[in-house]
Design goal:
By secondary structure, the protein is an all-alpha fold. The protein has two domains: about 60 residues, no CATH class; about 35 residues. It is about 90% helix and about 0% strand. It is built from four helices and no strands. Helix 2 packs antiparallel against helix 3. It is flat.
Length: about 100
């Protein structure tokens, strides 16, 4: 059971991180610094710490807030972020055209 959770968590985070801003920032820093090992260690440490904070916060919040509310809050938050990104993209496109 623990192994299945470990694998599903790894796959979820690995796939979610492919092509995101963190990976692009890591790629850019590695290309401009000529020190890929230092960039790897720095970005890996940052991802591990951010994941630790998320896991600890999620575990703590889950003790007093039901799962349905956590999922609802996450859904609404992602929806708001998506709408803002779409509106920002539309506004940026209008500025370029004019």
């Amino acid at each position: 059971m623990l192994f299945n959770l470990l694998i599903s968590t790894f796959l979820t985070v690995f796939l979610a991180e492919l092509g995101d801003k963190t990976q692009l920032a890591t790629l850019t820093l590695s290309g401009t610094s000529n020190k890929p090992l230092a960039v790897f260690l720095g970005s890996s440490t940052a991802l591990v710490l951010a994941s630790l904070i998320g896991a600890m916060a999620g575990g703590s919040i889950a003790t007093f807030l039901p799962e349905i509310y956590l999922k609802s809050i996450a859904s609404v938050t992602f929806l708001i972020i998506g709408i803002k990104l779409i509106l920002s993209s539309i506004n940026d496109g209008k500025e370029i055209d004019t």
